[in-house]
TrEMBL record:
It is an enzyme of class 2 (transferase). Its EC number is 2.1.1.386. Residues 297-382 form the Methyltransferase type domain. This is Small RNA 2'-O-methyltransferase. It comes from Actinoplanes digitatis. GO terms for molecular function: metal ion binding; RNA binding; small RNA 2'-O-methyltransferase activity. Keywords: Magnesium, Metal-binding, Methyltransferase, RNA-binding, RNA-mediated gene silencing, S-adenosyl-L-methionine, Transferase. InterPro entries: 3'-RNA_MeTfrase_Hen1_bac, Hen1, Hen1_N, Hen1_N_sf, Methyltransf_12, SAM-dependent_MTases_sf. Residues 1-246 form the Hen1 N-terminal domain. It comes from the Bacteria. PANTHER family: HEN1 (PTHR21404), SMALL RNA 2'-O-METHYLTRANSFERASE (PTHR21404:SF3). It holds the Pfam family Methyltransf_12.
Length: 474
């Protein structure tokens, strides 16, 4: 991934003094997720460009995330350590590298050009590929930037295809006259905010990092609530604390609509009486209990949240969790403490690695199968393969499917785009019901629909659920 900083203030090569990097050299730095390089492709008296290039190592990226960070996203893309956009699209990875290699410049310090460090100079910043979940202009323009965010189209996608159109990435160009330290701090905070993801566990000390980088501009920013919540990975307790400190720093600020519920790991940035994940799990367990199932498949089980609920109920005599990710299965194994259970209890639970888009004979003959928040992680073109393998080949007597209701998203303050960075689509109620009705008719099931979570009169519930029941042959 790449970021360039250009100035035309003469002598333009003084940019090297501000960044503490000699324009005639290629500088390399070891960072936790790979190697960062700083070079100057253009270094003349009237124009100078510094480029920050980050080469991501997938193995080191996985190690940098840490076990706890991995646990926070058990439903993330299952090959995410190796097959993803992280080496190419600007994100918190690039922000972290920027913080390391330009540490003095971020602080506004320059031993050789102290007066220049405090001067606003003409700047042009380019980020050729940035995943943009929102309006870049709304974040950068209030800070004095002229913003150009050109959508990057998808290659070789036929018109009419579900993936046709622009990608979720933009080529970002910022132009303005600002202090270099301010420009770098804007990038350090707002790149991961636009990406709406972080590659590491967000701890309470991230509040201090945010307030330090946002000093002088964040407290008065019209989108400070959105910026704070996203930067702190939607951890509501941390966001509330940060917003309270920002309000104290800005005497003209109105009370920010901060969430005060101490639910640190809620999936969405709004206060709720009960976490939606808990309501969803209980709704699925209730549907399984009504079906009379004893042998249950949890397909795409992730870290095992539903498996734990199934194990707590003795009516389920055989419980199988499957996932394509071996890492997710390891998390589930540790979460369920299978190695510590008595043999009789341990014998009820099996974990298998299996891909839902391929037929697996081991999954045939079960009373019920659950796809809880799974289908939206597949590309739409892969759904027919899942339908054939689950409803056609495995053919459980009952199938329970849940997925987000995209109509409800507008009620989540600060949420733009989809609810999760790996969601490939989110459906309206009509779209989900049309899909489920078609699948049911094609594979000999009846289907009923329920909502999960707080019910809005116009938007419905945040989660929608379909219960498929195998029809008796005449």
């Amino acid at each position: 991934m790449l970021l360039t900083v250009t100035t035309t203030r003469r002598p333009a090569t003084d940019l090297g003094y501000l960044l503490v990097k000699h324009p005639d050299r290629v500088h390399s730095f070891d960072v936790p997720t790979g190697t960062a390089y700083v070079l100057f492709p253009d270094a003349a008296e009237d124009r100078c460009t510094a480029a920050l290039l980050l080469d991501v190592d997938p193995q080191r990226l996985g190690a940098a995330r840490g076990a706890r960070a991995q646990q926070q996203a058990p439903e993330s893309f299952t090959l995410g350590r190796f097959v993803n956009d992280r080496p190419y699209a600007a994100s918190s990875l690039l922000a972290g590298a920027l913080a390391k290699v330009f540490r003095s410049a971020l602080r506004g310090e320059s031993k050789d050009r102290p007066e220049l460090a405090g001067e606003a100079i003409p700047l042009e910043i380019r980020v050729p590929v940035l995943r943009c979940r929102g309006d870049a202009a709304a974040l950068f323009a209030p800070l004095g930037w002229t913003v150009t965010a050109d959508p990057i189209p998808l290659d070789d996608v036929p018109e009419g295809h579900p993936l046709a159109g622009d990608s979720p990435y933009v080529s970002l160009t910022l132009t303005g006259t600002l202090r270099l330290c301010d420009a770098l701090n804007h990038l350090y905070v707002l790149m991961p905010v636009l990406d709406d993801a972080k590659h590491y566990w967000v701890a309470p000390d991230e509040i201090d990092k945010l307030l330090r980088a946002g000093e002088g501009w964040l407290a008065g920013h019209p989108e400070k609530v959105l910026i704070t919540r996203r930067y702190l990975a939607h951890r509501r307790g941390l966001a509330a604390s940060a917003l309270e400190r920002l309000d104290r720093a800005d005497p003209d600020s109105v009370d920010a609509p901060a969430d005060t519920v101490a639910d640190e790991e809620a999936e969405l940035p709004v206060a709720r009486r009960r976490p939606l994940a808990e309501q969803r799990r209980d709704a699925v367990l209730a549907a399984l209990a009504e079906s009379g199932a004893a042998r249950v498949l949890d397909l795409g089980c992730g870290g095992g949240a539903l498996l734990a609920g199934l194990m707590a109920d003795r009516r389920y005599t055989e419980i199988v969790g499957t996932d394509v990710s071996s890492h997710a299965l390891d998390l589930a194994h540790r979460r369920l403490r299978l190695d510590r259970l008595p043999e009789r209890q341990r014998g009820r639970v099996t974990l298998w690695q299996s891909a839902l888009t391929y037929r697996d004979d081991r999954l045939r003959g079960y009373d019920a199968a659950v796809l809880m928040e799974v289908i939206e992680h597949l590309d739409p073109a892969r759904l027919p393969a899942l339908e054939a393998s689950v409803f056609g080949h495995a053919n459980p007597a009952t199938a329970v499917v849940t997925t987000p209701n995209v109509e409800y998203n507008v009620l989540y303050e600060g949420l733009t785009g989809m609810r999760h960075s790996d969601h490939r689509f989110e459906w309206t109620r009509a779209e989900f019901q049309a899909w489920a009705t078609r699948v049911a008719a094609g594979y000999g099931y009846g289907v009923a629909f329920r909502g999960v979570g707080d019910d809005d009169a116009v938007r419905g519930t945040p989660t929608q659920m379909a219960i498929f029941t195998k029809e008796e042959k005449a």
